[in-house]
Amino acid sequence: MTKILLVEDDESIVSSLSEYLSMEGFAIKNVSGQKAAIEMIKKELFDIVLLDISLKDGNGFSVCSSIKAQLDIPVIFLTASGDEGSIVAGFELGADDYVPKPFRPRELVSRIKNALRKYQNTGNEVKIDNVYVDMDKARVTKKGEELNLSALEYKLLVMFIMNRGKLLSRNQILEEIWDIAGDFVNDNTLTVYIKRLREKIEDDPKHPTIIKTIRGLGYRLD
């Protein structure tokens, strides 16, 4: 099911739009402000973001910039602001579409589906800080240089990406990961592989910012 994050502080729009999009088969979550939106995209993976420009504690431009710096997903602006400057600013930040209020729900659904199709046709790439992962080609680059990851290191990285924002216990990881010979990885070996992966993708492996250790619980990729 396609997951949509709706960033909107008008309760009437949130209520009516959430109901309509749910009936169309989408899974909807809503936040009303800039800070909450940025925190939400760190915690959960969404397929598309519907974003108002005018927010109570900031603006949609900052949210769009944060999204595009971390994720390769479409962003559609929903706004009453129709001036050319706002439209241009949104597109320059990477927005994929711009729908002025009031809008027709059926037209919005069409625009959502169109934006999603474009991303489905451009490959499966993920950006994490200055690391790019092309999961269609199993290719990982950092600052333009390709990283030489082992098969198990790559499996670990993809597992973290597919569970981005979620805490993964060591047991959860061990249940899913096995080495190139098909043998299960033991706890000590997992520690070694995570260390090696960090040495390749982190700027400072001793103080990791990509794969974080949650003491006593496991690991998390933000």
UniProtKB/TrEMBL annotation:
CDD domains for the chain: trans_reg_C
A single GO molecular function term of this UniProt record: phosphorelay response regulator activity
Pfam family, one: Trans_reg_C
SUPFAM superfamilies recorded: CheY-like
BP term (GO), one: regulation of DNA-templated transcription
DNA-binding region: 123-222
Alphabetized UniProt keyword annotations: DNA-binding, Phosphoprotein, Transcription, Transcription regulation
Residue intervals of the Response regulatory domain: 3-116
All copies of domain OmpR/PhoB-type, residue ranges: 123-222
One Gene Ontology cellular component annotation held by this UniProt entry: protein-DNA complex
Modified residues (4-aspartylphosphate): 52
Keyword Transmembrane on entry: no
Main function: May play the central regulatory role in sporulation. It may be an element of the effector pathway responsible for the activation of sporulation genes in response to nutritional stress. Spo0A may act in concert with spo0H (a sigma factor) to control the expression of some genes that are critical to the sporulation process.
Name the UniProt record assigns to this protein: Stage 0 sporulation protein A homolog
Origin species: Acetitomaculum ruminis DSM 5522
